Amino acid sequence: MAADLSQIVKAYDVRGVVPDQWDESLAELFGAAFVQVVGADAIVVGHDMRPSSPGLSAAFARGAARQGADVTLIGLCSTDQLYYASGKLNLPGAMFTASHNPAQYNGIKLCRAGAAPVGQDTGLADIRALVEAWAESGAPEAAATTGTLDERDTLADYAAHLKSLVDVSGIRPLKVVVDAGNGMGGHTVPTVFDGLPLTLVPMYFELDGTFPNHEANPLDPANIVDLQERVRAEGADLGIAFDGDADRCFVVDERGEGVSPSAVTALVAARELARHPGGTVIHNLITSWSVPEVVRENGGTPVRTRVGHSFIKQEMARSGAIFGGEHSAHYYFKDFWNADTGMLAALHVLAALGTQQAPLSRLLAAYDRYAGSGEINSTVTDQTARTEAVRAAFATRQGVTMDELDGLTVATADWWFNLRPSNTEPLLRLNVEARDEPTMAKLRDEVLALVRA
């Protein structure tokens, strides 16, 4: 097939519609190119529950083996389970998933040995160039001996590793509703939660890459409505929702109210600082003011970064940070090879809740201190012009500071907002926070009026 790789090779991964934009023949070329670029003689490959995932991952493995690399196939897994395998086996890895995208999509998340990320600047552009060069003629047969293909089940070891990082053995009995969204959480949760004093109420645990119940994107409020209703109906202590590849988790309290990922970041940061006193904690620039405050209160050093997992992982490696959190519900741990794992964050929430008697809403009140808008997207014809209009409106106001670490951030002592462009769509993304709800609402509406003028 003719390959328009500009449409499928993104900043951090490969992602597109199957078979319209890519297919197994291209997947095989990606496997060959990956091995050449990372210089690997062995790799590990896993996949999610999408209908196209087994075929694509098998083709990728064939391409890698024909370049002489031995391939360990771990089969059905969550993305963080693939990172576990990459870290534990010290092998480069490939995860076939399109995360929360609709069923017709699929993709590849790539990493070097030890779960180190592969993005545009760290090998992905070179992989794309090789695949484009080979698209007509095929990959060269570069190895005298074809690599081996071996299967290995890593689920039990992955679960045991997570539970070695959080002591959940002594928690009080808890009732937890988990919405797996027909994604990989339905595969991993039963094993990870096995043996814990939990009454598990499963929702949509059947692996189904057509997502028959709702999109597997818990950051969209529409996709957690079922979970919220079930938590209330069951009288549960909390609810947890995972995205399609189960590397992100979203928490609902005992009232059925969504918990801000910034509050979860602050809670986990405090717990990780108890394990690693004086450590550095990474947070992106749209997390709440609560996060750096809690980090400092617990003796740590907060470091603010751009949005995006590649920036978080790079900064964690550079600074030796113990933990990192994003408002998108990605959570990164030094003890997990700096990779993101929503399951480990979920275990931290369970441990924090289960070692005291207060309900989750009361426990988290200490970590959720301000009024936030959440992320609001606006479709615009000219991202730069609308951003400049907002900058001009606030530039002369007293007490205002501005920075451009990622988009435009405007702040005073009482509020801040960040306006940043989408890299892939004609959108501007707005996040607003203030010391109280009326101030936040007024500021949000003022900025939106400028953006949408």
Automatic annotation (TrEMBL):
Domain of life where this protein originates: Bacteria
Domain annotation Alpha-D-phosphohexomutase alpha/beta/alpha: ranges: 7-133, 157-256, 266-370
Keywords, in A-Z order: Isomerase, Magnesium, Metal-binding, Phosphoprotein
Span of domain Alpha-D-phosphohexomutase C-terminal: 375-449
InterPro entries in UniProt: A-D-PHexomutase_a/b/a-I, A-D-PHexomutase_a/b/a-I/II/III, A-D-PHexomutase_a/b/a-II, A-D-PHexomutase_a/b/a-III, A-D-PHexomutase_C, A-D-PHexomutase_C_sf, Alpha-D-phosphohexomutase_SF
Pfam families: PGM_PMM_I, PGM_PMM_II, PGM_PMM_III, PGM_PMM_IV
Cofactors: Mg(2+)
Gene3D superfamilies: Alpha-D-Glucose-1,6-Bisphosphate, subunit A, domain 3, Alpha-D-phosphohexomutase, C-terminal domain
Family statement: Belongs to the phosphohexose mutase family.
Protein name: Phosphomannomutase/phosphoglucomutase
